[in-house]
Amino acid sequence: MNEQDLRPWLIRMSQGEEEALHVVFEATRAHTYRMVYFLAANKQDTDDIVSEVYMELIRCMSKYNQEQPFMPWFNGIIVRQVRNWKRRIWRSLRLMERVKSAEQLVASPYMEDPFDGIHGGQELLPLVNHLSQKLREVIVLRYYQDYTLEAIAQLLNIPLGTVKSRHRLALEKLRHHVSHTMKERGESTYVH
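Structure (tokenized):
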């Protein structure tokens, strides 16, 4: 199916029609699979990435400008999803390594604030899991997914001020927990 034939289905899909999604999927599936297969570092991930591509297509369809060619726009989604997958795999490997070493965490004598590590990528997943769901969402989206506070507000459909408040409260709770844990271990939390 060429792009002209696909255009009415794209319009119907942007309006939420399920049949249109199936038609667009069938028309683009082989192309998507080939492109993901060639871009993916681990070929076993191809099917999962293809699923992510179509989930992102559904999410982004309302942003598609019907006056522009569809395939270049769609290829951009494919490339971004392959990159996101690679980044997610890399982060999960890094997270596993840091969670293993978190048990052996010793405060650096050069670190004035024991929580400064989160800004440098220090993974604090075990501590984050103790936060309430609302606070955890903000921390995970901000530090594990690299979303801006503005993007988090949009994603969670809440005011930016609420995101900032939750972010500040979550950081305070995490700092308090780190400080408390270090005191229990008899470690200094400040440079002397």
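The chain is about 70% helix and 0% strand. The chain has two domains: 3-90, 105-184.
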